Structures are given as structure tokens and as C-alpha cells.
TrEMBL record:
The lineage of its organism: Eukaryota, Rhodophyta, Bangiophyceae, Porphyridiales, Porphyridiaceae. It comes from Porphyridium purpureum (Red alga). It is found in: Cytoplasm. GO terms for cellular component: cytosol. This is Hypoxanthine phosphoribosyltransferase. Pfam families: Pribosyltran. NCBIfam families: HGPRTase. Pathway: Purine metabolism; IMP biosynthesis via salvage pathway; IMP from hypoxanthine: step 1/1. Its cofactor is Mg(2+). One of its GO terms (molecular function) is nucleotide binding.
Amino acid sequence: ADGLVESVPDEFQDQVARVLLSEERIGARVKELGAQIGEAYRDQPLVILGVLTGSYMFVADLTRAIPLSKLEVYFIKASSYEGTGSSGQVKLSGLDHVDLTGRHVLIVEDIVDTGLTLQKLKQAVRELDCKSVAACTLLHKNTSRRLEGTPPVEFVAFEIADEFVVGYGLDYNQSLRHLPFVGIFRTKSAS
Ligand code: 5GP
Ligand code: MG
Ligand code: MG
């Protein structure tokens, strides 16, 4: 099914250039990753820290695929992006409402681009005396913008090329998050 080129639904043709990851492909990979996370933590209680807003769909699907009996899910907010360019700053909120002392924490992100958001997050979580901190991302961008010294990502669903993507939680100015697939954003050409 991998050679299949899926087409963008008519109503999104003017905003999405092409489908990068189909709903089916995402579903299969998320199940695989969920099982892998279950293996990694075995019978230990796990705290999932979803990063809003981009990870909401991924967290919903991923947590249902993690075969652990003790799992808690929290969401925090991180914002750094304006339009299709990074602002170079990260605002975190919501961490103060979660007690992570002595817990195994898995941060779940939508996409790692420069790595700055994840770096700030891992730092902030580590300061809360948890037992371990790891990161999981739906998308890991192969980009020259990756900042030096940014932390490794332990669980990656897909490595992607350096293009601006939307869908499955990822937005363009708050819209297009609800696409069930990941697509390449259609950049409007000035004419
Ligand atoms: P960072 O540069 O800190 O690794 O990524 C920060 C945030 O930028 C991501 O969590 C995501 O919200 C946004 N971002 C980075 N690349 C893309 C992209 O290709 N598409 C969308 N929609 N957001 C992106
Ligand atoms: Mg994000
Ligand atoms: Mg965004």
C-alpha cells in the first residue's frame, strides 16, 4: 500500500499540495510505536505529557495503543511558532499543575524542527525531580535549522524532509489541524 499516492480531498486542494502520510500509514505506525513504548516501560507507571495543541490527535491515538496498566495523561501548552517561521522563543504553561516527582515522564510532541521546544521542555521537566524523562514525536524534521545541543528524541514515528506540513494536529495559523492525514502545505505564490 506504500506506493499508493493518495489524493488531497477536493475541499483542501487550495491549501494542501499533497498527502505526505496517509491516515492508514499513520494508524499503522502509531500502533507499532505504542507497542514499543509499552515494551520500554514494561510494568512501570508512566506519565504522558502531551504538548498542546499540535499533539492532541497523536496523543489520543498513541495512548490507546500503549499496553500499560498504569498510565496518566496530562497536557501542557508550548507555543513558539508564528505562521510558517519560528519565533525563536518558547512559552510553557500548565506544568505547575502536574506532580511529576519520582515519575517516569514521556513528553509527546507533534514535530521536532529546530529542537528548541523540546530542549526547553526536557529542562523544565527535569527540574521537577521525575525519575526519567524521554521524548516521543510524531514527526522528526530532517533540517539544517536543528540547534546544536538539543536533546535526542527517544521515540520517533516518522522522519520527514524539510517542508512545512499540516494535518493530524498540526496547524497553519490554527487551521487544518483536523485533517486525518499529514499533508504538505501549499504555499501561496505571489502573482
Ligand atoms: P521547534 O522548532 O521548537 O522544534 O518546533 C516548534 C514547533 O513549531 C512545533 O512544535 C510545531 O508546533 C511548529 N512546527 C515546526 N515545524 C512545523 C511544520 O512543518 N508544520 C507545522 N504546522 N508546525 C511546525
Ligand atoms: Mg509542538
Ligand atoms: Mg503551530
